[in-house]
Automatic annotation (TrEMBL):
Protein name from the UniProt record: alcohol dehydrogenase
Ranges where the Enoyl reductase (ER) domain occurs: 8-325
EC number(s) reported in the record: 1.1.1.1
Listed SUPFAM superfamilies: GroES-like (SSF50129), NAD(P)-binding Rossmann-fold domains (SSF51735)
The entry's keywords: Metal-binding, Oxidoreductase, Zinc
NCBIfam families hit by this protein: adh_fam_2
Reported cofactor(s): Zn(2+)
Domain of life: Bacteria
Enzyme class: oxidoreductase
Length: 328
């Protein structure tokens, strides 16, 4: 099979011909149809995530069709379409796993990071961590649901019942979260890179009440701010935009340093929290919403061998919505 490999020596992925992986007990072999390109993949190739398998096949927003079932697999059938997310396995035994917080597992495996992922024609995955996908999305549309949508959903859930939601960084995650928030009768305020009118237009089209640059104050006080841009300087800025009792949720796996700020920004029971990974329950809950709401998924697709160009476009903000590799 053809695959794109990260070997840790540079930020460039190398195209290789590799033997097809074989499904072990509990695993399924998938013919990959599409794989989303997530900002986490950029943090991987930029070596901001420091403990990858080496070499590793990146990609954790995998849509594929079951080509072979390993021993003991239940719940999936040959030929069925399946989604593979970031959380690839957990230990099931640590105190986090035993308290419904498997996203914090001490010994988890992550797809496209510590486990080979979906920048390839084929992959194997532990079937217990895979999801059934809503039928009415194409393969390309379904791919971003698996991280941008799913972890975006967990980020939104951390805002509790906040009514006025600010989204900082309007890319793959935020454009899905905005629609889920609207579906939940919340108001959305979208902050983009200064001057990114394409992203602002997209936000307004998807139901945002306001869209502007992240250097602008919102027209109203927010109840929560969700940060999808990996920019620590946005934390104090977002704190100033949220009302007393409000929360700033950092939705990414990596962020530049947060600059010092006066305690007064945090005063008034404001909180800053991070979101780590996902639980399988998050996935089930989010796929149910994705099934019920017909989210509009904005994508730019690339051939597998163009993965480096997709990463570059994501890095420079040249694309709107989500980048997706297709294996066609
Ligand atoms: Zn565990
Ligand atoms: Zn991701």
């Amino acid at each position: 099979m053809r695959a794109m490999l990260f070997d840790g020596s540079s930020a460039t992925l190398y195209e290789r011909d590799l033997p097809d992986p074989r499904p072990g007990p509990g695993q399924i072999l998938l013919d990959v149809h599409a794989c989303g390109v997530c900002r986490t993949d950029l943090h991987l190739v930029d070596r901001e995530l420091t403990e990858p398998k080496r070499p590793v096949i990146p990609g954790h927003e995998i849509v594929g069709v079951v080509a072979e079932l390993g021993a003991g697999v239940t719940g999936f059938a040959l030929g069925e379409r399946v989604g593979v997310p970031w959380l690839g396995r957990t230990c099931g035994q640590c105190r986090y796993c035993r308290s419904a917080r498997e996203n914090l597992c001490d010994d988890a495996g992550f797809t496209g990071y510590t486990i080979d992922g979906g920048y390839a024609e084929r992959t194997v995955a532990d079937s217990r961590y895979c999801f059934h996908l809503p039928f009415h999305y194409t393969d390309i549309e379904a791919a971003p649901l698996l991280c941008a949508g799913l972890i975006g959903y967990r980020t939104l859930a951390m805002a509790g019942d906040a009514k006025r939601i600010g989204l900082y960084g309007f890319g793959a995650a935020a454009h899905i979260v905005a629609q889920v928030a609207r579906h939940q009768q919340r108001e959305v305020y979208a902050f983009t890179r200064a001057g990114d009118h394409a992203a602002q237009q997209l936000a307004l089209r998807l139901g945002a009440a306001w869209a502007g640059g992240s250097d602008e104050p919102p027209p109203v006080e927010l109840d929560a701010a969700l940060l999808f841009a990996p920019v620590g300087a946005l934390v104090p800025r977002a704190l100033r935009a949220v009302a007393k009792g409000g929360v700033v949720v950092c939705g990414g796996i990596h962020m530049s340093d947060i600059p010092a700020f006066p305690y007064a920004f945090l005063w008034g029971e404001r909180r800053v929290v991070s979101v780590a990974n996902l639980t399988r329950d998050d996935g089930v809950a989010f796929m149910r919403i994705a099934d019920a709401t017909r989210l509009s998924i904005e994508t730019t697709s690339y051939a597998l061998s163009d993965a480096n160009r997709a990463l570059d476009d994501l890095r420079s903000g040249r694309l709107t919505g989500a980048a997706v590799l297709t294996m066609g």
